[in-house]
Amino acid sequence: MKLSRRNFLKITGLGSASALAPRLLLAADASDSADDIIISVFLRGAADGLNIIPPHGDGDYYRLRPGLAIAPPGNEQGALDLDGFFGFHPGMAALLPLYQSGELAVIHACGSPSPSHSHFEAQDLMERGLTTNNSSFSGWLGRYLDYRMDDSFGVFHALGMGNAAPRTLAHDASTITMNRIEDFSLLVPEAQKAETEALLQALYAGDSPLENGARDTLTAVDTLAAADPAQYPPQNGATYPDTGFGAQLQAVGQLIRADVGVRAAALSLGGWDTHQGESATLDNLLPELAQSLAAFHTDMGTAMDRITLVTHTEFGRRAYENGSAGTDHGHASFVLTLGGNVNGGRVYHDWPGLRDQDLYGKGDLEVTMDYRNVLGELISKRTPGMPMELLFPDFDQLQFAGIYT
Amino acid sequence: MVALFSTGMAKVPDARASTRNSDALPPPDPDTLTLNRCTFGVSNELIGEMQRRGRENWLERQMDWESIDDRETNDFLHRQTPTVFMSAKELAALPNRGQAANELKQATVYRAMYSNRQLYEVMVEFWSNHFSIYHRDGPVTLLKTLDDRNVIRPHALGSFRDLLHASSKSPAMLVYLDNHTNVAGTPNENYARELMELHTLGVDGGYTETDVQEVARCFTGWAVGRRGSGNMGNFQFYPRLHDQGEKTVLGTAIPANGGIRDGEQVIDMLAGHPSTARFISTKLARHFVADEPPQALVDRLARIFLDTDGDIRSLLREIFLSDEFLRSADQKLKRPMEYIISALRSTRASPGPQAYRGVRQYLFALGQIPFDWVPPDGYPDVAGYWTSTNGLLNRWNFASALAGSRLPGIRLDYLALIGRNWRPGALVDHLAARLLHRPLLDDDRRSFIGYLASDKSATKRLPVEIVEERVPGLIGLMLSSDYFQYR
Q: For residue A9, is it within any domain?
């Protein structure tokens, strides 16, 4: 039987309110610090793969987007060439060195085969790793955590940045969610802190989700206080952008450095629903995304050998532009993946083309790579032995493109 | 309890581990349950009022919201948040746009806190969330004030059809979902899709991608009067930007040259559609009964929706008088707004003019500032979303700050709250009745008493220094307990 951290502590006679518990957690976690960490970044709102990774070598791209297309490389505000056919939007400049050094790969015409054009349904399905609705509540990364769960897992094994626990991480144990490290403490008068914690433990002693979550919250507060992550500022000259997302990714880096036992983290960056005024939105969001990822890579240094970061978006956008200088909901988009185990410096693709007869549905880029092929390869290379039908219960066509070592 | 994000790890036998489940908390009585769901917070005065009138009469009176005198709240808002009463023209002339947005949020919080029309305010919140509009989207900063006053409030307890028509012509909605840029030839599908997916039919409601495109064509030219047009900030139909061709929506042909009637006909079709009846009924039952609402109740509501042409009061009556409702104690977790306002109401905290600052600080930390949800689906209405570690921790921190009078502009008179009950047992019982409005389990009662009197003597009168040192902490703990997390 696999034991949870909490039950492990109970067996050894240590309540998590005990002053000894945090140090014990740290000692145990430090011994397996070489373990893998997977970070999911969800770009909410359906990010436009066609303008973020423009296919400047495809003439139809310029036919369909006369007002919105990113100019070919060499022009003012032109694409930054990747492989002679695809390029980066100029706002992605901060990631170009990582692509060139082979630590960043791009997967294009990638996405979910689900025909849904609803943000909310498609996000939910993608976070769960499914194409059809079923009653399973867990996320794909959560099922990975459930599979790996053992005694070495501490309360911080699943980390969600934001107000609510991301569906991606939903699993059998609690996800620790926070907005900012410095706000994650119990703000009661110091003299009554221990007593208050003990009483909260007693009041929330039962087995409902609320009660389990409450006790894990108290454990996490103790763990964090003992680890004192403030002593781990960004390293190697990394500078994160001064934005909400930049700060969240910086916090993830800080917690990894503080060795509190993070095994998976999930973050979101919203605002990609560019029905109108798309150029200004991307000019604003892409540097925030690219500079944050690049800073994280710099910050983590050699630790990137055991960290893999992967981006998602629920679907792409219509291949042709609308009358509002924007694009409506589409189908395929892109994935970025970053880490020491990535066969980067390549755009993986089976380009479906943008001629009218190539388009999907009402005029969308077709999905030629199921996003679960990317995630499935990542998990099976890093955690050999995890059955893929456990990871993706309604997908049995897994094919690996050699994106990971 | 819905276990969307359930946290049950592998269980190991442990003699000391309690098996207590929150389902086993002593349930509130039907009056208290009704007040929990139909107000932003129970008070002893409200319980008294309901006992006097009877539950059904109390509900009828609350549904007849215009008959309830609310001048005091209104006068307060006129002084405190004048922009919520301004016209489009006056709003546009404001030197600082942020003022309108800030005052609308404040007014929303104050109304929830003070209004005598509590069920009405609960429904205003429900529909504001159903027709969710993100406040910081350009001109929406000003226009949401008009949407609140002209769309949501007039129809919150009226007819869904009227509400939907009003929303479709709401400048704030048209701008937020980009319909003001939806023009013939190159339509913008944003409003059309969300109108069907989120406002009416639901994602499985039976529309196709072609329907999305056709509905978008029907709404071409629906926009907002431009600056200098004499109609600035109000709904404006631009016939020359409208696609005059024939359309087909949900299998119904809409003949050419319909002009503004195209969109109005679409609204009428959607307002009376069986999928809309089911979708709205499910959301209402989810809000008032359970995260996974009982199917039989939803079925009855959907029938009533169609029979009454979406009469909101008839739907609420069916919910409140149902067995499903009376059996649903502790099935709804308070969301942050409900948690914070109910704590203020229960403790009779006296918020000064600066009180919104303190409330805002925790609404922000908990993630539920009014009108601040970015995508158009509105704040989630299920426990799974809100029971995060961040959520619990900030609830506890809010409770402690409120009880210790450490929130800016909010003072809590804990001595008045405990009255003459200075013996630990009586004090705990008195506070539990005032704040939690339900009986305590013996274990928890003992824990609270132990916090007051370490020698466990429940009957000896407490010295003043212990009252001063311990009672605020006790209040904070009661508001932090699971007894206070459900509505």
A: no
Q: Please spell the DSSP secondary structure of A211-269, one letter per residue.
A: HHHHHHHHHHHHHHHHH-GGG----TT----SSHHHHHHHHHHHHHHTTS---EEEEEE
pLDDT band at A133 (very low <50, low <70, confident <90, very high): confident
For residue A314, CA distances in Å to A205, A287, A296, B198 come to 39, 20, 23, 17
Predicted local distance difference test score (pLDDT) of residue B18: 37
Question: B338 at the A interface (CB within 8 A)?
Answer: no
Amino acid identity, position B3: A
Q: Which of B2, B4, B9, B16 to mutate to test the interface with A (most CBs of A within 10 A)?
A: B9
CB B181 within 8 A of CB A323: yes
Query: What is the Cα A390 distance to its own chain's centre?
Result: 20
Cα–Cα distance for residue pair B426/B442, rounded to 1 Å: 14
Overall domain count for chain A: 1
**Chain B environment of A186 (Cβ under 8 Å):** 393, 396-397
Complex ipTM value: 0.89
> What is the domain-level CATH number for residue A71?
3.40.720.10
The domain locations on chain B are 274-326, 333-487
Cβ partners under 8 Å of residue B215, min gap 6:
B192, B195, B196, B249, B266
pTM here? 0.91
Q: Domain range spanning residue A165? A: 37-391
Find, among B434, B166, B460, the residue nearest to B310 by Cα: B166
3-state secondary structure B35-46: HHHHCCCCCHHH
